[in-house]
Amino acid sequence: MPELPEVETTVRGLRKTVLGLRITGVWTDLATKDKRKRGTIADPKFFAVFKKEVTGKKIISAERRAKNILINLNNQQTILIHMKMTGYLFFGANPKIKFAHVIFSLSNKHYLVFSDIRKFGKITLLNTETAHDTKHLNNIGPEPLDPKFTFEKFTKRLSASGARKIKTVLMDQSVIAGIGNIYSDEILWRAGVYPERKVSKIKESELKLIFQAIKETLKKGIDFGGDSMSDYKNIYGLPGKFQMHHEAYRRTGERCRKSGCKGIIKRLIVNGRSAHFCSIHQAF
């Protein structure tokens, strides 16, 4: 699933390509009667309203909240896109890309296309003024790269999760926004903390290492244009390069690359999710 660096990379791409353009049409083939899709464009009744509301409107800004893309229009409406596991947005003159399930026609004769192999992605429409108060966004923790997100705020967020495992807590969007399976592994490898350690058993000095690793690892992910170990591509249809710099994620059986460490990367399951860690410098 695209995490904070992938979504941030996409939003930065949107800012370079679609701002100031008008949406001239919308197409989708996601029509379903699945009740779980109500309130999204996969619901035919909702799509009819969605299409009417966005057609002819100008895109004025794009932003990210956790793993959500927010495209703000000049009619005080916001298109929310969550790419889920296999989705990505593509901008170009030819909309005929693989697994295209939503196509926005734009006023410069280009298209914004949502490709999604597994069709798990979500696209809906919110009132811009109240978007952050809706069920889609109101239970999300602070942004880890926000300068206002200090170590003190980090420890306060963790204080209610003392009995939980650190890997799981880092991935909990209600605690901290935007971190998933890939980056939690890389963060804990960098900090030297075992993924199954309970938060209450982690020393303050180790928490400081985790906090620093969060900032550094996510910034590194953005610098490399996100991670394309799976299906993610940027707005131009190009893969990111962070997967070439993994230290732990999916490196099971390989030597640890930490200087002076002779450990081997191992894999275990933490609350149903895989975790990759070094057998020595992240030992329990």
Using brief descriptors, characterize the structure shown.
284 residues, alpha+beta, 2 domains, 6 helices, 25% helix
Structural commentary:
The chain is of the alpha+beta class. It has 2 domains: about 5-135, Alpha-Beta Barrel (N-terminal domain of MutM-like DNA repair proteins), CATH 3.20.190.10; about 150-280, Orthogonal Bundle (Helicase, Ruva Protein, domain 3), CATH 1.10.8. Helix content is about 25%, strand content about 20%. The chain has helices at about 5-15, 45-55, 150-160, 165-170, 180-190, 205-225; strands at about 25-30, 60-65, 70-75, 75-80, 85-90, 100-105, 110-115, 120-125, 265-270, 275-280. The chain has a 4-stranded antiparallel β-sheet with strand order 1-6-7-5, with helices on one face. It has a 4-stranded antiparallel β-sheet with strand order 2-3-4-8, with helices on one face. A hairpin with a 2-residue loop joins strand 2 (about 60-65) and strand 3. Helix 1 (about 5-15) runs parallel beside helix 6 (about 205-225). The protein is elongated, with a radius of gyration of 20 Å. The two termini are about 30 Å apart.
